[in-house]
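assembly run, all chains below
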Amino acid sequence: MLTEEDHRLLKLIAEDCRLTPEQLSVQTGLTPDYIRKRIIDWEKEKVIVGYQPMINWARTNEERVSALIEVRVLPQRGYGFDKIAKRIQKFPEIKALFLMSGGYDLSLLIEGKTMQEVALFVAEKLAPLEHVQSTATHFVLRRYKQDGVELMGEEETIQRLVVSP
Amino acid sequence: MNHYLASHVAGLPPSGIRKFFDLVATMKDVISLGVGEPDFVTPWTVRESGIFSLEQGQTMYTSNAGLLELREELSHHLTKTLGLCYNPLNEILVTAGASEAVDLVMRAVLNPGDVVLVPDPSYVSYAPCAILAGASVRYVPTHAKENFRLRVADLNQMYTPNAKLLVLSYPNNPTGAIMCREDLIPIAEFVTKHDLLVLADDIYSDLTYEGRHVSFASLPGMHDRTLFVSGFSKSYAMTGWRIGYVAGHSDLISGLTKIHQYTMLCAPIMGQIAALEALRSASEAKDDMVTAYDRRRRLMVHGFRQMGLDCFEPLGAFYVFPDISKTNLSSEAFAEELLREEKVAVVPGTAFGPSGEGYIRCSYAYSIEQLQEALIRISQFVERRLSKL
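ok done. output:
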């Protein structure tokens, strides 16, 4: 269970991981040494697993296609879905993998350069895997929001008075 | 045409803030720390409920006192958050912003010749509203060495037998000071001794950074003496919706309602519906805003102290009130020269009363990036001034 202070610190790092321990210290009232130690601990405990900028690739001219794939698998005795999931996640094309409740078992987010490349990956790598019963591929047509950030939204321009009581 | 104006209006000095606003409006690329409203947009769930109310055709008057559903929710909210107990049927009045509530209180309880005791510095409207109600004002100074808390010693000095109303506005605009229970108890004894009413403007009560706000009205025996004023502008970033409220003894609220029904009739219905939604489902969004303000508050206090200025640590609202007297400039000169030389707008402390001399008010309802840039510019200005001494 995180303390309130640690929760605040972790949230701040999640919001902007570029902040230095000194900057974090000014904004939280915690000492830089405490913050440094806490970050190291969280990295060791795999609470912090990486530091990445959020990039809206649609704004670059790079070709990129993503698809959400529903996969039905046969659970294995003694392992459930974990064994097959651990095997599937090794493919670098797979950016996210979830075990789902409902009509199918695993949900995958795949990225590739073209639709063809993604389709071939599913047909040649994913579908033939042992225990995979069926797949259904849904291509992403447009990203409106990701990780809490509106990608297509118009900036809300706030028109405040310059001075007010 | 000035001679047509009533003498008590003509004699009212223009707001110190207004003067500064006109100056800033003529300049470009100014970073303003002069704004007394949140930089956040109203939480989406609240905006959405306002839109839905329009789609549903809810465009009529409400009862004078405001939607009963909103008053019931408010009553529940005040009990839960501040331990206050008000009957939604006759002890709560929904107003067009807390500003209307302040005006109503003054007009409903003051007779010509009465005196209002106002902590100094504090929000700009109390004195003009008192004067428009025919009363006069005595400023009760508060001091940085006392953390800008109101003290009975100062109240005793300024007391006059004509005093009828004491204004308490904590967390305070412009200082960011708060009053805890131990600070309020002697004030309660003072108002009981002199049989005063209290206007408790608790508009910033949700924006505190160490411990929870204690409302004066929650102190033993103070329920009936207090007119509790608050609103949605600061807590839920809803300034433009104009929804506030006042709660108190039913006799007093009924007096206030008489004025409200002839002048405002009712607060806007769309805002009332949005306010109801804010109480029901925006508490998480509110907490996130408080967390963001807290980060900025620490940044600002640290920034001013790094410049070598004394800066009282504000524990509420969203303002810092650094002491700029080391620069040998008056508050007004500091603000004007800073604006001209570094294009940063702050508000001179004197806009909030004579005790504001030697201080400036900086709002931190801005993004961290804007605040950092403003601090760099202010620091350059202060360094130049200090090196001249």
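Residues 37 and 234 of chain B are 7 Å apart (CA to CA).

Chain B touches chain A through 28 residues (CB under 8 Å).

not gonna interpret more than that til we talk
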